Amino acid sequence: MSLELPGQDRPLTRNVREDRRPTDLGAYEANGGYQGLRSAMGKLSPADCLQILKDSNLRGRGGAGFPTGMKWSFVPMDDSPGHKYLICNADEMEPGTFKDRLLLECDPHQLIEGMILSAYTIQADVAYIFIRAEYHKAAQLLREAIAACKEKGYLGNNILGTDYSLEMHVHASAGRYICGEETALISSLEGKRANPRAKPPFPQVSGLWGRPTIVNNVETLCNVHHIIERGADWFQSLGLTDDAGTKMYGVSGRVKNPGCWELPMGTPVREIIEEYAGGMADGYQLRGFLPGGGSTDFLTTQHLDLAMDYDTIGKAGSRMGTGTMIILDDKTCPVGFVKNLMEFFARESCGFCTPCRDGLPWSAQVLDDIEGGRGLPEDMDTLARQVTYIGAMGNTHCALAPGAMEPLQSALKYFREDFERHLNGGGCPYCDGGTA
Amino acid sequence: MPVIKIDGVDYEVEAGKNLLEAALGLGLNLPYFCWHPAMGSIGACRQCAVVQYLDEESEQAGRGRIVMGCMTPVTDGAIFSLGGDKATQFREAIVESLMLNHPHDCPVCAEGGECHLQDMTVMVGHRDRHYRGRKNTHRNQYLGPLIHHEMNRCITCYRCTRYYRDYAGGTDLAAMAAHDHVYFGRHQEGILQSEFAGNLVEVCPTGVFTDKTLVHDYTRKWDLQSAPSVCTGCAVGCNTLAGERYGRLKRIHNRFNAEVNGYFLCDRGRFGAGFVNNEQRLEYPGLRQADGRFDALSHYHALQHLQQLCTGGKLAGIGSPRASLEANFLLRTLVGADNFAPGFADAEQPLVNTALALQQHTAAVTPDIRSIESADTVLILGEDVTNTAPRIALALRQSVRNKAYEMAAGLRLETWQDAAIRNLAQDQRSPLYIASVADTRLDDVAADRRSLAPQDIACLGQAVAGIIAGDAGATIAPELQQLAQEIGSALSGAQRPLIVSGTGCGSAAVMQAAASVADALCAGGKQAMLCLAVPEANSLGQALLCAADAPDLNQLQQRAASGEVDTLVVLENDLYRRGSQAQIDALLGAFKQVVVLDGMDNATTSAANLALPAASFVESEGTLVSLEGRAQRHFQVFLPAEERQPAWSWLLACLHDLERPEALALQHLDDITRACADAIPALAGITAAAPDHLFRNVGVKVPRQTHRYSGRTAMHADVSVHEPKQPADEESALAFTMEGLNRAQPGSLLPYVWSPGWNSNQSLHKFQAEVGGHLKGGTAGVRLLQPGSTGARPVATAEPFQAASGSWQLVPRQRIFGSDELSALSPGIAELVQPGFIELRAADAAALGVSEGDGVEVEVGDQLARLEVRINDTMAAGCAGFSSGHSGCGNLEALAQANLRRAQGWQRRTPQLIGSDAASGGAHD
Predict the structure, then answer these.
(1) Within the 142-161 window of chain B, which residues sit less than 8 Å (CB to CB) from chain A?
(2) B867 contacts: CB under 8 Å, gap ≥ 6
(3) Which of A29, A174, A316, B493 has an alpha carbon 20 to 30 Å from B477's alpha carbon atom?
(4) Where are the domains of chain B?
């Protein structure tokens, strides 16, 4: 991982140090930290904050890109008794994605400040950081940061002397990919099986413990206090396209300089790969890339000049997802690549609905047969049927399985000849002295 | 009502339903697995996929999207396609996915032939397998003597855990692991702890959970001869389908009755009829010889002896609360009403009479099961419902969810959105208050439960009634005053308050208090409900049949001693369960002659001069009156073997032989039913319990055998290669053949559920007017009790209980497995019955110098019992609980004051392995 420091405004990573050591409360405050909180508390009403968020056009950074302000506006703001919850989804398990880790490990207070203001906006009184258990270093930093905030009066009762109170807890996940799905996360946090829930009702009205709940990604929440402090126009101005703000982009695979960078939203793909990731490693050619993690459709060399934002990548037939690309090079078997992902998703299925639970292992088995030289010509039809059967949203209980089918369906589109070579040649041409 | 369009046809459907319910209700076939009419939708299996179109334009263009029928509300103008290619291909793909790991073991699977997975596989048209991988396999678990586990067959529909945990409140069955390794079982092998575990057999859409007694004595559904029956395990009167083959009762399935048992039975009911096949059953009449041995008699000679005894003797009779009204009525006719004892224990008789009188003289409604489920505040006084009227307890467990439904309505969630509603409400429940002598199985959903002596329970109830009525009420301990206030205001604020009590703790005052609370609510303008549990299948019928001043056992003994009567006829009643050994010895000894009609070789038949083998409830017709005063008919499933005869048939033959004028016109069971209805005004309604034997369904009878019944010739080929003529049934509208029509008949005449393409019990919806609603032919049974005036009813009061030092008040502790006589003789349940024991608080045990597993001597007057000690710190202070109806406890009387002392020379039992545990070694049983 490497952090190039481009010259433009980069609010999310301004406290990220060259040596990656965490920014503590003192350093955070010295660099203007908690000023957003101080300036907002007591001066801006929750409705004011929400309006700023809406105007900023901040979209969820967890993958779906749903407008954050609109999501929050569904939280009932009447004075009915009972808790409301804010949950930070720090269960970063999307294959190829490591952007939240950087934010968590290097600048925990940024997240906490963002969460306090977010919780204030929806008038939540309890906040959880649901963090992937493997991120134990970050979890520890967060616990320490929360304790420090409590001492400073940023958390706890009557924050900064106002009548607003917030408790914040860190919860280490037991480690399933599906916990990153917001309703499965809520089930897991309640101590139940991490099964997603049917919507409606949406978590905004019936979430954790049946109470109004907002779940947002780490990167989304990290943006909030910057927006409140510096305004919607400033945030809008950061993006190069219609999508606002900066974005944590990442590249993994056979590039010279794999890593993660905060760049203006809408930075072209080519610029990310060639300038920041240093281009392909010597001896490798780019064949395609998954733009936003393991559950997004392949794009190929023809898409290199597209802007990396939600709408542009969506129109090209994929999703920006988490914004962290996985590169497919010309020496790697696309079938094996997809099979690897499919086995991951099959294993991470919660086992609730049939197409996902039984359909993904079936797809994985077919891919394994093709990759292992045991494929039959009709397997191509089977895979095509699986894509229609499992791939459509609504056919399954949640988005895991449709996401899992995205690499497969786009591989069938862009790399069909590779599948056919496997079927005709009796095995993988990339392995064991293959002729690719 | 919304109008929806399905495949081009407009249908009017009920608002608030989901599409799957609506489609099934319209008679359309839409496959499903995870949805269950009693448990709602979760959208797991994705089997009920249909295509929904945005508008007519998109319908014409074929641009629809797949939605799940069970998760889609019907809204006016919605357009669906069930038959379109997109949906049918998707549904076929779902079955193909489910079959990836499903074994091809249908020929050896107990579910085969009535398997919902088979039906759905055929329905979606799936045939060719494309998957070439290996199948996943699992280890099976030993789950106790009742349920067989075969995990490889699982299709992961989550119905089992949703039923077991969410619906029935069990904790020891769960979904474990993830992805395609999900496993449904216990954390380790062992007996399933829920009293309602047996419903897994019917809830599971395939062969994972099957009836172990059936598996070990197997017959396919299509080979069963079945008839509508009524469970005799307790007084709830659950409707059952009893199936027979080769003269053996093979299994009990649920028979849907929207008002009595819905879709579910308790395990006593499902597995407790195996006594019918018990080897202790009497086969021939027996006449006691001088040397004490019995000689077997023919039917003819037995009747001759019976006639002689009846002609010469001055007759008295003891009826039975577990025998039919008809048999009891004939015995009462034979011996005369004055000398006919209903057959209760002496202490029990006034209790049952009180339960009846309170229900006859209250403004409160006696609720059916739906009303119980609809209750929004419940008070249970003294009754351990799970062990005395289990199906009611399951309904009470649903009643606490009304709070959740209320919350759901606020978010416009429909009641079938099960997961969403549970997630919304979490642990918020409608209030359920329990005052009992010790812990109960509903404590986990109770807002409050107090352990109190029965006298204090009665005082608490009276205090609550006083608070509701706004007067002073009973004097009550200060620490209970606050509770009484809380209960009183909760009940007063409720829309549908329910008070539950019963005879279970042996106190009339407790039931009286329950009725007072209900009446106070009614006086305040509430439509309160009052549910009183009584012990046996026909306890209430027996109380209705006999006057409140009918003689009890003690009075009969006195009359025999005085020479008023000298010949006793006992009907289906083991008297040694109704009193102490000494009392019953004295009773029987006071008579010159004792005739016993019963099915089982028990202590009472052994004491008879003439013993006549009576047919069991599945070998005879009869009418039983349940605890809600519902008269229900059970029908002969198969003809009794050897010389067994229905008890009414023995008695009718005797009356005919005696040429008794009142019996001359009686030929059929229906005649007896009518005569009984004519003679007893309170029973006037019982003829309407079911159609009589002249009823024909569109001109034909209703068949007991399925249209695929096989082997009618081969079955008896070892005896004769000629197929015998099928026996004729002169007593009912059912036939012992395959011929006839099992469709659209009255609900009480439903012998099995089966519909083309629907071979499993899921075919039930084809027999319902709407999914989950009443049977098309009407609900079985007829209600006899009507709310009445509160005047002229008995008054039983209690003074606060004073714990005495050095002695304990005995309180009965009821057990679902063991407290009932006949079910305890059924093989699976017999394994679960524990020998009687006594429950003591730890401090009491310490004072006696005993600990768990030690023995104590229980002394009441001149009776002495030796019982094992169990520590239970939830026992009410000053009370000791004994296992009611168990061996060793039989002579103990409720509410007696007993002296306890450490038993000398007590042999502690070593931890005992249950038979099938040891035999099978656990897995793969």
Answers:
(1) 155-156, 158
(2) B836, B837, B838, B855, B856, B858, B882, B888, B889
(3) B493
(4) 3-98, 106-216, 297-346+552-614+646-679, 351-386+401-535, 807-915
Average pLDDT on B806-810 reads 94
Would you state the structure tokens that stand for residue B342, as one six-digit string? 């209903």
Q: Do A358 and B180 touch (CB under 8 A)?
A: yes
Structure tokens at B780: 């079985």
Does A362 contact B175 at a Cβ distance shorter than 8 Å? no
Hey, are the CB atoms on B179 and A348 less than 8 Å from each other?
yes
Mean pLDDT of B786-795: 67
Average pLDDT, chain B: 94
Task: Give the model's confidence band at B911: pLDDT under 50 very low, under 70 low, under 90 confident, else very high.
Answer: low
Q: Do B44 and A396 touch (CB under 8 A)?
A: no
Q: How many Å lie between the alpha carbon of A115 and the closest alpha carbon of chain B?
A: 24
Q: In B825-865, which residue ranges form alpha helices assigned H by DSSP?
A: 827-832, 842-848
Class at the top of the CATH hierarchy for domain B3-98: alpha beta
Per-residue pLDDT tens over the stretch B90-102? 999 999 999 999 9
Q: Which of B869, B815, B897 is nearest to B268 (CA)?
A: B815
Q: Give A55 to chain B, closest Cα distance, Å.
A: 29
Spelled out in words, what is the top-level CATH class assigned to the domain B351-386+401-535?
alpha beta
Question: Quick one: pLDDT at residue B474?
Answer: 62
The average pLDDT across B462-471 equals 92
Q: Closest to B98 (Cβ–Cβ): which among A349, A358, A396?
A: A358
Share of chain B above pLDDT 90, in %: 89
Q: Which domains does chain A have, with CATH numbers?
A: 11-238 (3.40.50.11540), 246-329 (3.10.20.600), 334-425 (1.20.1440.230)
Percent of chain B past pLDDT 70, that is, above it, reads 97
Q: Is the model's pLDDT at B21 over the cut of 90?
A: yes
Tokens coding B335: 């011996």
Q: How many CB atoms lie within 10 A of CB A160?
A: 15
Nearest CB to B179; choose among A197, A347, A365: A347
What's the pLDDT at B917? Answer: 45
Which residues in chain A are contacts of B424 at CB distance < 8 A? 201, 206, 210
Q: What is the mean pLDDT of residues B436-440?
A: 97
What is the CATH number assigned to the segment(s) B297-346+552-614+646-679?
A: 3.40.50.740
Q: What is the DSSP code string of A140-165?
A: HHHHHHHHHHHHHTSSBSSGGGSS--
The CATH class of the B807-915 domain is mainly beta
B61 touches chain A (CB under 8 A): no
